[in-house]
Amino acid sequence: MKQYYPADMKIAIIGGGSAGWMCASYMAKYLKDVRITVIESPSVGTIDVGESTGTHFATFINKLGIDVEDMMRETGATYKLGTNYAGWTGKDSQDYFHFKFNQSNTNFDKKLDKVRKHNGPVFDRLKLKHNHSIRDYITVKTEDRLTDTFLSAYNSGQLTDFDDWHGWDSFSKHNKFPAELFTQRSLQYAYHVNSEQLGKYLRDKVAIPAGVRHIRSHINDIQYHKGSNAIRYVMLEHGGFEVADLYIDCTGFKKLLVSDRHTVQYDTPANTAYVCQRDYNNPAEEMLNCTRAQAMDRGWCFEISLFHRQGTGYVTNSDVYPEQELIDEFTNHFKHNKEPRKLKWVPERLKNQAKHNVVAIGISNGFIEPMDANMFGIIANGITNTVDTIRAQRSLIKTQSVDWTEQNKNMAAIYDDVRDFILAHYTLSNRPGDFWEGMRAIGRSQNHADMVRDKYMNPANEFRHGDKQSFFPDILWLQLAINWGLDVSDWVKEKPCTDYVQYQMDTIGTLKQQSPKFPNNYTHLQNIYGMKSEDFKKKLLGDVD
Predict the structure, then answer these.
(1) What phi and psi, each to the nearest 5 degrees, are found at residue 285?
(2) In a domain, 6, yes or no
(3) Residue 159's pLDDT is what?
């Protein structure tokens, strides 16, 4: 039963889209006795080229408790097993596959039982040579830092690359989907999503059925409390107003509600993306199970596979290089026959995500660049941090006396971590060319090699910290270091578990042997959608029109 006015607290979310409806959906589920209203502009432009996400987003979606395959069928989403970086360490350098894997021991027995029930005998085939089972591995795993185990084996020559450790790389190279091993919440993965369709799905299937009010209107004016920058109410376009105790700004680059626009600007090289959609000629070959990130002469191109089309883009700097040359490089790379759309931004974040009774979520709070699919994860963290603060200080909301210090500190740390991770990809690269040499000079002057080592060695970044881990856990910094050629011989902090190395090698060896038997990515998705990609596109366009 819908309950529009239960409430001793009112929250107004200004701006719809994926950020606004993610926020509304999560708050409706995890905040009780709250009236939530989304005020959405009736005319908002969309990028609509497909979006890549990370595991933070997958975790967030799981917390909503929705049927993921239903969401996929309504939005054109696909599973993402990682990011394939091509040409970043040299024009002819080997691709590397960027991923996170599941190390947490939380409810491992339950997950294992669920996977066994779903997948049948596959796990019976995954045995150690010494007759140890997966269940024996659990006790091994609990006490050891998994990345140190890998690193020690790598430094000794026992392992040569991350594919030996994880196996997702094999699936990516052959565009196979590990259907036998794949269940929700049991293995690390993410999604490619259509941002616009995701917002509509969460609106219609999650938020509004949970009692969230929806108003379509422009905001004509904002009234503040006397002598304060706290918002009293917002005026709507055709008369009327909305009063709330807390206002959430999801208006993107407009930052409509943000009164304090002091920012921290970042020295990342990109401020522009040229984007364009393209249709599949052969979806069985072209529909990838990973995001592809191809290094270019003056930036990088992305390729994101939705079920009905691909989103492509060139991330670069239009202030430094002639625009037509950038467009030509982009269109020639993907063989586009239509003009791309230009998106431009300033790499920055607000000094304070939250102030008085206003919280900025997503791009309203800041944007750096799209590398490593960071934005959806930032949105998810911004929402969960806000809910945690509300729960802790709910009685202070009405008086605008909430202490946002800890939340602002947490979100600033996430943005700064993203900036460091992004910049290291550029500055530690060995790719030739003026652009890349300029980035290497920055890396040398700022000691980025030491920065990556420090990130890896920081205990707060370890996987075993679970939900409290940093935005980029240690395995990702280690992947970056090894694939970019840093010396990691002295990075091991703890005594590794050699038995687990053998277990992992046996398991991955089995997976590699079985990988040719796994279905093609497109074949697996067809089973989920129950139709071909071209038929889904017709259905989706019919719904939109």
Answers:
(1) -95, -35
(2) no
(3) 77
